[in-house]
Amino acid sequence: MSSHNQDTTGAQTTQEARMGEGVDNRFNSKLREAFGSSPFILTKFDSFMNWVRGSSMFMLQFGIACCSIEMMHTYAVKHDLDRFGSGVPRASPRQADVIIVPGTIVSKFAPRMKRVYDQMPEPKFVVSMGSCTCSGGPFQEGYNVIKGAEEVIPCDIHVPGCPPRPEALIYGIVKLQERIANGETAPVTVKPYELEQFGDLEEDELVQHLADQIDEEDLVMRYNWAESP
Amino acid sequence: MSLEAPEPSTHTDVGVTETGLDYDVLESLLGELVIDRETHHNAEAFVVRPDRVADALSVLREEAGFDHCSCVTAQQYEDRYESIYHLKKYDDPTQEVGVVVPTSIHEPKSQSGSGVYRTADWHEREAYDLVGIEYDDHPDLRRILLPETWQGHPLSQNYDQERQQVVPLTEHANPLEEDHRGGTDTMFINIGPHHPATHGVLHLKTTLNGEQVADVESDIGYLHRCEEQICQQGTYRHQIMPYPDRWDYISAGLLNEWAYARAAEDLADIDVPEYAQIIRTMSAELCRIASHLLALGTFAIDVYGDFSAIFMYAFRDREVVQNILEDLTGQRMMFNYFRLGGVAWDLPEPREKFFEKTRDFLDELPTRLEEYHNLVSGNEVLQLRCVDTGILEPEVAKQYGCTGPVARGSGVDYDLRRDDPYGYYDRLDWDVVTEDGCDNYSRVLVRLREVEESAKIIDQCVNLLEEWPEDDRTIQSNVPRTLKPDPDTEIYRAVEGAKGELGIYIRSDGTDTPARFKIRSPCFSNLQALPEMAEGEYVPDLVAALGSLDIVLGEVDR
Ligand code: SF4
């Protein structure tokens, strides 16, 4: 195998010296040995892709409220989320697979969060962290609070707690990874809060009233404290 | 100070006597501006006609030395609206006075105080937003916390929460669109509301001239969780205490709880046993350390970029503090440990173990701090970035009502733990840290040095607690099961939170829930000074300035 590369003087190149006969030692592993002389595995492409996807997740660096402090602790030393192959926070949604929603979502932020979610490439996953993202948590009664992240974007995993301990968040994320590796999909949820163009809203008193303040083409989201579950 | 500048005010002692302020003297100074007088628990308040607000405020500021407008509270009664300006002196915050401005229920219009105190600008916008009072001659009376298109004013009396709202997303202006504000070629850029450098959900509308910041305007309210409404629904005794933890959520929970505890205890006249005061002091300082460490870690991220070593080191030490606090309170962040009249329970058994753990932390701290000084304050790169950038002059800081490490980094020697003592602070040996640099670097340095002072305080508290006689360990005084402070009592009380003066205004109406609960958040005022620090600087310096302010949006928006 190495004979083609030998130059005419007969001296070994560095590469050849390194390679020796057969595969470079450095690439040998227990797993490799187990395959013996037929290093092939047979699997379905989909399962392989799911396994790959679940084993390396890029998180979106996204902080909202108190829960994000515990989320930072999860990334940092001691808990070190990176151990599970999901500890690379990306600052841009365009590079992320998973968004952890750590905190209370209020009316003004909901459309922006939806925006960020929409900017993430498919396939994307959502971990909702804390009671606030399950139900509005301690602030459910607030006039400005959205009662849970699921009103705005579909969630794969809910981690309850106020705030959940880092261990709990890790458990949630590892569960998500397991599910992805097994090819399980996210539940489809009903989303009362949609981002739409102002011109497409159903005409009512409020819409008429706001007509001169908001442009037809502006994106808007309705907020209705009473009727959201 | 230049020669033309007025002499250092000699008026600051108008009405000051040995036993406190003589309000009669102040009243005669204000003369016919005063139409009535009220007694609040913390100070006397003068009632002023809505069209004379600016006059009254400027007399008090210029002639009586009240240079700190700490808070503006707005509220609605059955028959009127009311704004209250809580004034103090930076030199001696125990000298307080209130200015009460009633306005008619049908046409709530009153004159703006923003010409006298810059900080009143945002406070009045908030009052307009949530309560619905309109301020004449206000430079920019828009909603500040709620979306622009919101209908109704949620803290006014006939607000209908069930009403539908429409929230626009217009902030997605094309960031590369050329904007010719100010005549030159400028560029408009949105920073946030989701951006790693904004420390949460803050939106900065920035106009750039080349790489320099020509104009920056903060757009807040992305985390407005209706804290005031929720506290107004809760009963004094137990239902309010969990919420302060969530204002400044950077592990500063106990400091915030203390703000509520102090206000409510003074209002309802509740004593706190000495033993409980020491536990409070100790645990609150632990919180301050945790909070300052996070400020340092995130500042390092802002300046150096990425999850750097300093961030990891700071979190390593925070974990230790959180462990100690968890032993004490049972939670890592949302402690809910203080009770009116004391604390929830005594130190964990075995006590020796707890003391040992705390001492171990304190013993290691000097080495850690040295490490931080090597990495941060002694680092040339950081110094190049931070020394002489983001300048905040002391007089400007006072205008904006800045407090805490931000004010102390500008040489304003103001710390409520010393100046308006509470807890056990006045009986312990520690110093207030100030730096005169007025720049990003000084603010960071102040925090680092404050960690040392906090450690001193904790050490003394641990010694005291260890020696405390076993039969005198009362952790709570007797507090009635349902607390109903006398009707129509009002109080404004503040403590030194992690970020500065954290004040609470409570008006009681004789029921077991407050009629008005207003939070004066230090971050709200500090953030308002950002344009002063950032305009004319480069973009990276804007980010560093924001980081050095150490805001937490939960407290800005409440
Ligand atoms: S669940 Fe609790 S800790 Fe988390 S954001 Fe909500 S209030 Fe804060």
Automatic annotation (TrEMBL), chain A:
Q: Which InterPro entries match?
A: NADH_UbQ_OxRdtase-like_20kDa, NADH_UQ_OxRdtase_20Kd_su
Q: Per its UniProt record, what NCBIfam families does this chain match? A: nuoB_fam (TIGR01957), PRK06411.1 (NF005012)
Q: Which organism is it from?
A: Halocatena pleomorpha
**Bias regions of kind Polar residues — which residues?**
1-16
Describe the family membership recorded for this protein in Swiss-Prot or TrEMBL: Belongs to the complex I 20 kDa subunit family.
**What name goes with this protein?**
NADH-quinone oxidoreductase subunit B
Please report the stretch or stretches of sequence annotated as the NADH:ubiquinone oxidoreductase-like 20kDa subunit domain.
Answer: 66-176
Supply one GO CC term from the record. Answer: respiratory chain complex I
Region Disordered: start and end of each range? 1-22
Which GO biological process annotations does it have? Answer: aerobic respiration; electron transport coupled proton transport
Identify which cofactors the protein needs according to its UniProt entry. Answer: [4Fe-4S] cluster
Molecular-function GO term, any one: quinone binding
Q: Does the keyword Signal apply?
A: no
Q: Name one Pfam family in it.
A: Oxidored_q6
Which keywords are on file for this protein?
Answer: 4Fe-4S, Electron transport, Iron, Iron-sulfur, Metal-binding, NAD, Oxidoreductase, Transport
Superkingdom assignment:
Archaea
UniProtKB/TrEMBL annotation, chain B:
Where it sits in the cell: the answer is:
Cell membrane
Q: Tell me, in one coarse class, where this protein mainly resides.
A: membrane
Q: Which UniProt keywords apply?
A: Cell membrane, Membrane, Multifunctional enzyme, NAD, Oxidoreductase, Transport
Q: PROSITE patterns annotated for this entry?
A: COMPLEX1_30K (PS00542)
Q: Which PANTHER family match?
A: NADH DEHYDROGENASE [UBIQUINONE] IRON-SULFUR PROTEIN 2, MITOCHONDRIAL, NADH-UBIQUINONE OXIDOREDUCTASE 49 KDA SUBUNIT
Catalytic reaction list = a quinone + NADH + 5 H(+)(in) = a quinol + NAD(+) + 4 H(+)(out)
> How the protein sits in the membrane?
Peripheral membrane protein
Q: Which GO terms describe its molecular function?
A: NAD binding; NADH dehydrogenase (ubiquinone) activity; oxidoreductase activity, acting on NAD(P)H; quinone binding
Q: Which SUPFAM superfamilies match?
A: HydB/Nqo4-like (SSF56762), Nqo5-like (SSF143243)
Q: Which Pfam families match?
A: Complex1_30kDa (PF00329), Complex1_49kDa (PF00346)
User: What family does this belong to?
Assistant: In the C-terminal section; belongs to the complex I 49 kDa subunit family.
Residue ranges of domain NADH:ubiquinone oxidoreductase 30kDa subunit in the record: 47-164
- Domain (NADH-quinone oxidoreductase subunit D) spans 309-558
Q: What class of enzyme is it?
A: oxidoreductase
Q: Name one GO cellular component term.
A: plasma membrane
Look up keyword Oxidoreductase and say if it applies: yes
Subunit record text: NDH-1 is composed of 13 different subunits. Subunits NuoB, CD, E, F, and G constitute the peripheral sector of the complex.
Q: What is this protein called?
A: NADH-quinone oxidoreductase subunit D
Q: What is its EC number?
A: 1.6.5.11
